Amino acid sequence: MFVLSMMRNAIPVLLAVLMMAGAARAELRVDITQGKAEPLPIAVTDFFGNGGEEQRIGRDMAGVIAADLQRSGLFKPIDKRAFIQTDGALSTLPRFGDWRIINAQALVQGRTELVPDGRLRVEFRLWDVFAEQQMVGLAYFTVPDNWRRVAHIIADAIYKRITGEDGYFDTRIVYIAESGPERRRVKRLAIMDQDGANHRFLTDGSELVLTPRFSPTLQEITYLSYRGNTPRVYIFNIDSGRQELLGDFPGMTFAPRFSPDGQKVIMSMAQNGATNVYEMDLRTRQSRQLTRSGAIDTSPSYAPDASQIVFNSDRGGSQQLYVMDSDGSDVHRISFGKGRYATPVWSPRGDLIAFTKISRGKFYIGVMRPDGSGERLLAEDYLVEAPTWSPNGRVLMFFRQSKNGENVTEPRLYSIDLTGYNEREIVTPVGASDPAWSPLIP
Amino acid sequence: MRFKFLSVLAAVALLAACETAPESSGSTQSSGAASTTSSSSGSSTSAVQIQGGTQEDLVVNVGDRVFFAFDSSELSAEARASLEKQAAWMKKFGGVRVVVEGHCDERGTREYNLALGERRANAAKDYLVALGINPARVKTISYGKERPAALGHNETAWAQNRRAVTVVDNTGS
């Protein structure tokens, strides 16, 4: 039993194991490293509730869970109309024969209850239909308004139990919402759940803002703002809405990212025609210059253990990827393919670096190992840029613009599996660029 | 019938307004030197007196911008000639302060282009300073690929967008 702290409404979610799962069996499992695995047929039933409100929440939660699992590309939720067993008895013990007939390999059922103190109690169980065994069973208490988040937490639990990897559904995306004419684009910070729900704008568009990135605690976003016609790195506090200028630099600061422990921000400063990488300690407010090449050194990103930093530089004549120790020593180039390489982002797993590549007039999103080997390109278009990793390092999000005759489409967000399959648009109310994927919500 | 005719006229007027809309960023006016769509307002503006030392004066009589090759911040002979005229103009109007805006085409990544725009603005500033302009009179700002001047998605448009634009600084300080 443990307590998850909520990010904004401080009501804790209690999580209790209902029933001991049988001996650790691995019969029902999806290998997510396979490129084109057949998605697992899963039945996600409406969570059972006694009252009308409980039934409504139960139905909506099942919808959110099924949509999460479907978008992952690893699961195929079965159409509810095919379900044979729909009675309340389902919430105690399923009739497995009814589920085998429709070829459901996994079954999700649950129950919602508004308890007298006003809280919502949700329990769910994941069953292996053919083994007739419970794979996981958990219960949560939360405020009723929080049902959607609990649905994502349940989807993560299902994903983890079946794939063996952490999920990424209880996460958020911060991005730049774009509107207006191309010459005077209005850009606003915007935030939403990973599935596009709970969308809201964080800034009003009066200042040009670019390249937002989450802190590991999700409390803060670091980004570039042209406030007062002076482009500088700021930190935005999500709870208070306060925007704070970071440091007192003589030149333009940009391309910020938090360190994995959230105690530092690395960024670039441009002055007198040279752009170098700087690190700022957020507690002492002391900054330190890490590169001094006289070239353009930008887009720095820490390795998850913070021992190294990857960045792009044109010090060798064209834009390429370099890795250095986090104190600025031992700089070495890692990209050697044809074309220019940019926006490197280290995977949270540490095993890969995602990048934007520009070659022969096209843009690509790709990955390579930190030593530069094993380059693979996952997406291409007139413009694809700004990859960001899901917290489990299995999915990349980026933005895309396609050329349609002489016109170029509005920028839109897309996600794609590391395998190169399952590309999907993340629907946003207006044009969207510069996405940043949050860690799992703590 | 009459009503229909009027709406057609209105449409033509709108179209004309679009064609002559300013194409630069910031508070600047369009530069005649850069623009291939010559403004039909030429004959009408000639009657208006342009005040010396203003942005309009810079755009119309000097030229407010210089252009760069792809992924380059090197000043061409043409760019130098244009900056020499700007420097002479700044000497004539000794009270004028300017901001040089550096811009890029859309065929680079956002953060790299911010740096490249700064390098371009700085190259123009350095040349003005080398020509005897007090560096305190010249500020720089980079917009990367955020504020295109030309809207196409082809080499003609990109060439117009790889630019450093000199803008009279009216913000004081």
Question: Topology of this structure?
Answer:
The complex is a heterodimer of chains A (442) and B (173).
Chain A: E1 2-4, E2 13-17, E3 40-44, H1 52-71, E4 75-77, H2 96-101, E5 106-114, E6 120-128, E7 133-142, H3 147-163, E8 172-179, E9 186-193, E10 200-201, E11 209-214, E12 220-225, E13 232-237, E14 243-245, E15 252-258, E16 264-271, E17 274-281, E18 287-289, E19 297-302, E20 308-313, E21 320-325, E22 332-333, E23 340-346, E24 353-359, E25 362-368, E26 376-381, E27 383-389, E28 395-401, E29 403-404, E30 407-408, E31 412-417, E32 424-426, E33 431-437
Parallel strand pairs in A: 3-4, 3-5
Antiparallel strand pairs in A: 1-2, 2-7, 5-6, 6-7, 8-9, 8-33, 9-10, 11-12, 12-13, 13-14, 15-16, 16-17, 17-18, 19-20, 20-21, 21-22, 23-24, 24-25, 25-26, 27-28, 28-31, 29-30, 31-32
Chain B: H1 2-19, H2 42-45, H3 55-62, E1 65-67, H4 77-92, E2 98-103, H5 110-130, E3 138-144, H6 155-161, E4 163-168
Parallel strand pairs in B: 2-3
Antiparallel strand pairs in B: 1-4, 2-4
Helix pairs in contact in B: 4-5
Write up what this structure looks like.
The complex is a heterodimer of chains A (442) and B (173). Chain A is mainly beta and 442 residues long. Chain A has two domains: 2-163, TolB, N-terminal domain (Rossmann fold), CATH 3.40.50.10070; 172-437, TolB, C-terminal domain (Neuraminidase). In chain A, 10% of the residues lie in helices and 43% in strands. In chain A, a hairpin with a 6-residue loop joins strand 31 (412-417) and strand 32 (424-426). In chain A, helix 1 (52-71) packs across helix 3 (147-163). Chain A is globular. The two termini of chain A are 16 Å apart. Chain B has 173 residues and is of the alpha+beta class. Chain B has one domain (2-168): 2-Layer Sandwich (60s Ribosomal Protein L30, Chain: A). Helices cover 43% and strands 13% of the residues of chain B. Chain B has six helices and four strands, in the order H-H-H-E-H-E-H-E-H-E. Chain B has helices at residues 2-19, 42-45, 55-62, 77-92, 110-130, 155-161, and strands spanning 65-67, 98-103, 138-144, 163-168. In chain B, strands 1-4-2-3 form a four-stranded mixed beta sheet. In chain B, strand 2 (98-103), helix 5 (110-130) and strand 3 (138-144) form a beta-alpha-beta unit. Chain B starts with a helix and ends in a 5-residue tail after the last strand. The model of chain B is unreliable at 1-45 (pLDDT under 50). The interface between A and B is large, with 44 and 30 residues.
